Amino acid sequence: MGALAAENVVYGREFSHILCDLDDCLYRIEVIPQSVAQNIKRYMVDKLGVPEAEVHELSRELYHGYGTTMCGLLTHGYQLDVDDWHAAVHDSLEYDKLLHEQPTTRQVLARCNLQKHLLTNADYRHAVKCLKRLGISDCFQDVFCYENVQELGQQAGIITAERPVLCKPSKHVYQLVMERIGATASNTIFIDDSPRNIAAAHELGIFTVLVSDSAQHVPGADLVVRHFDELPAVLPQLFAPVNTAAEPHADEVLAGVPIRVMAA
Q1: pTM score, two decimals?
Q2: DSSP 3-state assignment of 222?
Q3: How would you write the pLDDT of the chain (264 residues) with one tens digit per residue?
Q4: Whether residue 114 is found in the same domain as residue 148
Q5: For position 207, which CATH number holds?
Q6: Which residues 6+ apart lie within 8 Å of 142 measured at CB?
Q7: Domain that holds residue 148
Q8: Helix, coil or strand: residue 212
Q9: Which of 53, 221, 259, 260 is the most exposed place for a label (fewest CB within 10 A)?
């Protein structure tokens, strides 16, 4: 084990990759999930004909049962255009007004010794806008979002008529992404704000960090922090000292937002 590897050993495990969620994990702006929830319900009523009196309970049940409301709708046979759905859910968000650069978060990412990969259920356009506004577009080796996760699932034969969409907390998502980046459960850290996403990753043997205001123990979470920026305090072995942290270089990531969309 080399000197750098030794620095990346925590709890007897040597880590090389981080998978990190986006919304409510790298940033937390309460009005955004509130607006998204309202946009989802409006779409279900206006475009899918769900009765107003039933939409709240149905959207809640589908979200908790399938990972995302859209995944649940498609699984139950609702006909919807995915691009139209994503536009209706996210395009009205005031990104320029709500999201701003987060220099501390950028520094934490720059100090981290591991390969960093974003893993979100959101669509590409939303991920791009958020990363750009937060000032961290160049901090990740890869961005795995709705579009390329579906491609991975299709290539693996996991997406079928019975399972038309693949998203967290499906264990297939973590397995396919780790295979793609050359990681294993034993050398991967997963960071998310969702206890169910955390639990699914933990069952695969992935080291998990839950980002939660409660900062209370949750089954499946190896660590709990209130904010992403607290990671160097709880996992100091994985971060370079502040005065030696290097900013990401343009030649270390793909042009623009570092997203790899796999060819069919």
Answers
A1: 0.89
A2: coil
A3: 333 344 677 888 999 999 999 999 999 999 999 999 999 999 999 999 999 999 999 999 999 999 999 999 999 999 999 999 999 999 999 999 999 999 999 999 999 999 999 999 999 999 999 999 999 999 999 999 999 999 999 999 999 988 999 999 999 999 999 999 999 999 999 999 999 999 999 999 999 999 998 867 788 999 999 999 999 999 999 999 886 545 554 333 332 233 333 332
A4: yes
A5: 3.40.50.1000
A6: 117, 118, 180, 181, 258, 259, 260
A7: 3-29+100-252
A8: coil
A9: 53
H or E stretch covering 75: helix 69-75
CA neighbor of 208 nearest in space, from 236, 217, 5, 105: 217
Q: Tokens standing for 194?
A: 């969702």
Nearest to 138 by CA among 240, 15, 24, 251: 251
72 and 178 part of one domain: no
Same domain assignment for residues 25 and 125: yes
